[in-house]
Amino acid sequence: MAARYETHLGALIEQQKGLNNISDAQVVERAKQRGQKLGKSNIGRIAGGGNPAISRSAIFGLAAGLGVTPATVARAALADMGIILTEPEADSETAIRTDPTLSEQGRRMLLAVLHEVRSNGDVPYLSDGRLDPQYASGTRTGDEHLAGLLERDDLTSDG
């Protein structure tokens, strides 16, 4: 029998099971709780690379059971078929949500920290999560703000 780590999908399955300390049966139960179908016997077959074809329902079932996105599972399955997709650029939140190396607890913690940083008000973010372009390295750079700084007496050498 081939080792589960011989495939990208197998490595993803084992990695997520290890990070979340869950068994195949628990993966199946988690998928079921999230409204997806996944058979316990399918996990071993898929992870071992015994069948290069994987169905849509298996992708969604594995994603739900492992706590990753369907795109993460699909990317690993495609890599096993020799199709390597490059990673698209993503903002911090998307990167955290889609990182297959994070446990669910780690993902929740990082998202909470990110939310706290963004809501702190020190560096405002736009509604889409991007840094406000009037800020560079956390320092306001808008014309009004810079003009206000230049008018301050306490910033001049003769002052």
Which residues sit in consecutive blocks of at least 5 with pLDDT less than 50?
Answer: 155-159
Order of helices and strands: HHHHHHHEEH
Query: Which radius of gyration do the C-alpha atoms yield?
Result: 23 Å
What would the average pLDDT be, to the nearest integer?
A: 78
Q: Major sheet, described briefly?
A: 2 strands, antiparallel
Gross CATH architecture of the largest domain: Orthogonal Bundle
Overall body shape: globular
Give a description of the structure.
- It is a single chain.
- The protein is 53% helix and 3% strand.
- It has two domains: 77 residues, lambda repressor-like DNA-binding domains (434 Repressor (Amino-terminal Domain), Orthogonal Bundle); 64 residues, no CATH class.
- It has eight helices and two strands, in the order αααααααββα.
- Strand 1 and strand 2 form a beta hairpin.
- It is mostly helical.
Write a brief caption for the model.
This protein has 159 residues and is mainly alpha-helical.
How would you summarize the topology of this molecule?
Elements: H1 8-20, H2 24-33, H3 40-47, H4 56-66, H5 70-80, H6 92-98, H7 104-119, E1 135-136, E2 139-140, H8 143-150
Antiparallel strand pairs: 1-2
Helix pairs in contact: 1-3, 2-4, 4-5, 6-7
What descriptors fit this protein?
disordered C terminus; 2 strands; 8 helices; 434 Repressor (Amino-terminal Domain); mainly alpha; 159 residues
